[in-house]
Write a structure and sequence with these properties.
By secondary structure, the chain is of the alpha+beta class. Helices cover 44% and strands 26% of the residues. The protein contains three helices and four strands; from the N terminus they run E-H-E-E-H-E-H. Strand 2 and strand 3 form a beta hairpin. Helix 1 packs antiparallel against helix 2. The radius of gyration is 15 Å and the shape is globular. The chain starts with a strand and ends with a helix. One of its GO terms (cellular component) is cytosol. Belongs to the UPF0045 family.
Length: 97
């Protein structure tokens, strides 16, 4: 499965990059395939391991912020591995045709 999620601390002012970096650090240290862009962090793996990482990423922000907003989207497709790469490659192939 692939999960794209964002964690936003609330009540800490406008500059939230430091808080978001804490969450992304948890994801990167998990060892699971992941990517971060301007809006979301995507992570790929089995349900329990991915959700555990998301939960820990939220918790690390929650330690320092009075409120946390989480947006999450999941692509649950059993038997697919390396979906983050293959989905993008498919689109790029169609664009170059």
């Amino acid at each position: 499965m692939i999960v794209a999620f964002s964690v936003t601390p609330l009540g800490v002012g406008e500059d939230v990059g430091e808080y978001v970096a804490d969450a992304v650090r948890v994801v990167r240290e998990s060892g699971l395939p992941n990517r971060t862009d301007a809006m979301f962090t995507s992570i790929e793996g089995e349900w329990d391991e991915v959700m555990d990482v998301v939960k820990r990423a939220v918790a690390v922000v929650e330690e320092r912020a009075p409120r946390v907003s989480v947006v999450l989207k999941a692509d649950i497709r059993p038997g697919v591995t390396d979906g983050m790469t293959s989905k993008v490659e498919t689109v790029e192939r169609h664009l170059s045709a």
